[in-house]
Amino acid sequence: MTKSIPKIWAILPAAGAGKRFSTQKPKQFFELNGQLVAEHSLHRLRAIPQIEAIIIPSDIDCTLWSQVPSLQQSNVKQVKGGEQRAHSVLNGLLSLDHMASDNDWVLVHDIARPCITPADINKLIDAVEHHSAGGILTASVNETLKKVSSDQQVEATVDRAQYRMAQTPQIFKFRLLKAAIESCLKAGITPTDEAFAIEYAGLPVLAVEGRQDNIKITRHEDLAIASAILNSQES
Length: 235
Fold this sequence. Notes:
Blueprint: E1 8-11, E2 31-32, E3 35-36, H1 37-46, E4 51-58, E5 76-80, H2 85-95, E6 105-108, H3 118-127, E7 134-140, E8 145-148, E9 154-158, E10 164-173, H4 174-186, H5 194-200, E11 206-209, H6 221-234
Parallel strand pairs: 1-4, 1-6, 4-5, 7-11
Antiparallel strand pairs: 2-3, 6-10, 7-10, 8-9
Helix pairs in contact: 2-4, 4-5
């Protein structure tokens, strides 16, 4: 009997209001180099032919999505988002229940990371091919790292060599990720990212070194930084 080749599915949780960024509209609907942030992120994922479909858990009733051309693609689908990121990702996973096999891969990416390169996405996919659970892109900590108390006093200097900044995409096997998130939520724990849920389940997570310019847009000044990064990547 021939063993089937695992498929790759993508989820872009996009239900958050992003009020730290703006009270007017979510950050994915701000313009960046002539396109919305959401379109940049979707365009980067659509450049990966191995991805079967891209699921966007989001506020389906938001009219601003009409300004995102990638939504017209047949393999891009919106589903209802959740209260927090983990709930949105779980909604995305549930929408794949009738399509994905247990050992298929699910790649989760922040819609506010428009500078991810297709090369780094492929690097992550290749790195986890024979891994038992999956892995994440990470970035080295290049600054001196301090431990600070609640009253903002420096307590210690931490060895930065032991730490990495978690990025996305994060990619895990469909069955494992779905079960891990459900287990966390059932225990009253809201995982901050997919790797947290996998770690909570006691499963290994591979750290794959990514590019430093795979930034997440969280503040207005990040738009200018992302613009410069995209210009640099395209030059």
